Amino acid sequence: MNQIYYLGIPGSNSYTAAKNYFRSQDNLTGVETFAAIFQKVTIDTSSYGIIPIENTLGGSVVENYDLFDRFDVWISGEYYLKFENHLLAMPTNDAPEDRLEKINRVYSHPQPLLQCTRFFEKHPWMKKKAYLDTARAAQYVSGVQDPSLAAIANQDAAELFHLDIIKKNISDNPEANYTRFFIISSQKQDVPDANRASLLFTVPHVPGSLVRILQTFADNHINLVKIESRPIQKKPFEYTFHIDIAWEKDQEDQIEKLLKKFKKNTQTQKVLGFYKAASLPVQ
Amino acid sequence: MNQIYYLGIPGSNSYTAAKNYFRSQDNLTGVETFAAIFQKVTIDTSSYGIIPIENTLGGSVVENYDLFDRFDVWISGEYYLKFENHLLAMPTNDAPEDRLEKINRVYSHPQPLLQCTRFFEKHPWMKKKAYLDTARAAQYVSGVQDPSLAAIANQDAAELFHLDIIKKNISDNPEANYTRFFIISSQKQDVPDANRASLLFTVPHVPGSLVRILQTFADNHINLVKIESRPIQKKPFEYTFHIDIAWEKDQEDQIEKLLKKFKKNTQTQKVLGFYKAASLPVQ
Questions:
Q1: What's the predicted TM-score (pTM) here?
Q2: Which of A60, A140, A152, A227 is the most exposed place for a label (fewest CB within 10 A)?
């Protein structure tokens, strides 16, 4: 069976994304860093990895773009996960609405703790406590078995660590928090009906060179789904660009020709993969 | 005196950026969220705020771009801060090199803890402990006065909380970690010799509309320093773009004319400010 590598432990957001995308919780293996995911899929050529690439609140996970530069792995799919920030605590006989006043310490990663600022303003007796990640925060609260402790984590974490959901979606902006994941592997995957590609490139240091590349795609009605520039380390004022392009079924035949042009106009370039566009999570 | 608002407590990276940029540690006021910084500068019209906008490892701080949409504040300056991840502990009579083996718990924000993965692999007896931010981790270690505890934080935190630097720059990639800050205020600042501008805009939903805007700048040899697209909430497949442009002294007169063209070609637009380009930190 193909192993699937993700960041963290069962109950992490990457775990949930992997479980949903592959429609199975078997063969999921958690590791501790993004680099470890790239290493694992490079060594175990039948395996897959799942990595977050951008978040609506946090922006691009640039570390993973850098890892695409270092490792030869392919993107074969994308997946959008809506992040849930639920307040979890050990089960008791009290009704959930009566439990809030007894909770005085809330564990989570600092990022979700910050995203729930208004909740903490309304419940000033709750003290924010940082933890390495949301799943481990839930695991800790579950282990201590103290009804005055809570964690902010997702529904999978609640189920896996036998915690009750005291209050759902307590973040300030619960509708706005979703993350895009890429599915990666060391083998080039032939994805039928692929309609998206991710490209990484640098351009010659002359004015207008980026525009020339984008123009090639625009002239052919190929949609630019994402664009981002990023300074190159130790080369101030030079940039790596990431773009994602999308096309319709009847444009498939043009893509190969356009990518040849793209290669001619760029200084360095890497096609990260062809894949099917995922739908956004239901808002 | 003009108040200056920053994120966190004295010893935070935002504190250090504010102190360095304004060359003073007076009138610095720490607050708990980025939104609070925007609120403060909007109410106190003589004040400034300092906010991180992008980090070489973490990418753009998209939350702050969203706040530019919600609040009418101006960018009047930029500053680059190199992030330091030093290992700090309470002073003892032992030599720093003898102390590493006695340290068994290291407190910091999860992000720097992750950035020091190789250090923790080499010192496997040290347990990573999450804290809300680096400065508060240093404050905690300083308060406990236990030589087996350490924090990962910067030099200002070491000085403010009377901790020794046991080991400098312990992150995997110490040269690569710098953050760009914007200086904001509610009053439009007239910056002499401004040579950069930050623009936020949306384009009509027709192919090639982004390219047309970039072309205007390229045709006039105006440098594109940064570009980033970001999906608009609840409008899938529509995007907000952030670009930063830079120009030379002899191009100053063109900018106003070009911005008029820019306004005509964009659907919505906001000029976030004109400012002087900061130099990158010495590597």
A1: 0.89
A2: A140
